[in-house]
Amino acid sequence: MRPWAVRAPIPSTVSPWSDPRLLPVPLRTWPASFYDGRRTVLFCWKNRSRAPISSLTSTWTDRARILVADTNARLTEAQRTRLGRIAFRAWRRGFREADLVLGPFADQVGPTLDEAELDLFEALLMEDNDHTLYAWIIETAPTPEQYQGSLMDKIRAFMAAHVAAEVAKGAG
Quick check: pTM over 0.70? Predict the structure, then answer.
């Protein structure tokens, strides 16, 4: 265990963010972490942000948190509902390899897509044959003309950057 990492269960009835005295570390200790019952959380005292302990630096954490907050602030209730439906379909394809590509893509990149790309992504998710869809993504089969373009390029780039890293860590 790292000397600066403190793992202690936090009572679920009290929030450690509301009272810093609840954290089992001195106020000026940085970085600090604690176990919240589900995951180990890194707490950055500099700007009161938090992220999973796997985050590398507070700068990365700050940027990721700001991007997610900005994206969520711009979404209307109808857009959130639509993205929820898309994410549900993307995660439950029935073919694990397609799930591991399309599910995280819908969660992480979905809120940044414009309306035309969301329409195309929904149409792509409505395809019947998951194996054919996955073959289009990994480019072992020719992609139909209607799906070629920036969306398919984004899915392929996402797969190369994120999913391949997860598989290398042993997730797949």
Answer: no
